[in-house]
Amino acid sequence: MRSTAFSWRNPRAALVACFAGWLISAWLFATPSFAQSLAIDKVLLVVNQEPITLSEYQTRHQREALQKSLDLQPFDDNIDQRLLNRMIDERIQAQAAWRNNIHIAPAEIDRAIAFVAEQNDSSVPQLLAHLNRNGISTGQFRESIREQQLINRLLEIAVHARVNASPQEIENYLARHPELSAADEAYEISHLLVSLAGKSAQQARSEHENLAHLRQRAVDGRPFAQLVRDFSDNPDHQSGGYLGWRTTNQLPEQFMQALRELENGQVSEIITSHNGLHLLKLHARRGQQVVEQQHLRHILIRPSAVTEAADQQARQLAEQLYQRIAHGADFQKIAHAYSADQGSGANGGDLGWVTPGEFSPQFEQAARALQSGEVSRPVRTQSGYHIIQAVARRRHDINRDRAWRRAQQAIFRRKAQERYENWYGPLREAAYIEYIAVAPPTTPTSP
Length: 447
What we know:
Chitinase A, domain 3, Triger factor/SurA peptide-binding fold, 447 residues, four-stranded antiparallel β-sheet, 17% strand, 11 strands, alpha+beta
């Protein structure tokens, strides 16, 4: 539900994403598996009696090369020891998760897939269709998600749950790093997206040419919002693509590079990303970070599966709970009993003070429409159905909050890395690795 900005509040979640998040994005750009063309597979090595095959390595190498990870070039029959070491580390950790009776339920995989789709501005069926067109079956994708979640769960138990940053440590860190308290850039922008999902290279070139013409029309004075409504693939294109104020932490680096070159009122050059082609219009910029925050509570009802029947069942339960609250039931008690967001649910659904950009557009739009004390009807996002309660509003300078969270994350990363090395080193040493068709890698690589 929340965008990457939520990681400021949850340094453990942020570090899990840092260690393993690249696995998800790698799948989204994969090309047809080399394994499909191999009649006989070769075992490169065995990790605790479990093989890693040449086809596995080739497919993984291709994905990493497309993602420009580890400075890899397309596969040329040579084995890159860095990548092979990474695969060994992941296999050892997944095996450790099984030994510790860590299991991932199918419903958890469904929710993770829904989150991946949301992060890529897509629905679940669209995401799976895109993967299938590129040679990755739904079963393969689910298995990659399952293994990643096993590793994440193991790291949470063995590493992250044992690490914290005290308030005094954070204050000391801020004193040593005053640059963290400096005001961030912020930009008021609108956005036009042309999706390239499922399109050939020739179609992509045609879309680029068409977008260049649209950009010129914007430069010549055509209202940008009208161009968005008429031509954009933005999910919220009818609103004219207006995103409001966004900070540097809420925008991709490609967007930031383009915006820094613009004057107010100008339109960017075409930006190419994995989501497609983009145009940005800069309305204004600022350094001050005073924003209107809302203190919110919510109840999340997630469908039990990615099916129409499960979605209908979740919607009906959310509507029933809303009616109970509307007739006087205690919001916090219902949140504690029913909310699928375990973190906030245990605290009566409390999300604290929420800054614009932390949640999905559908969630934020519904929350903004509420007056203090009001409760929304169920709101659908990729995460499920939300019942939102607005507690209060305030205008708040978030510079200090952001600096505090950055310092907290920095301390947490350092401590977690130390903890990880102390925990995983003996695990790697104890693993039985038999190198069959490759030479032994040199040194372990952290995930």
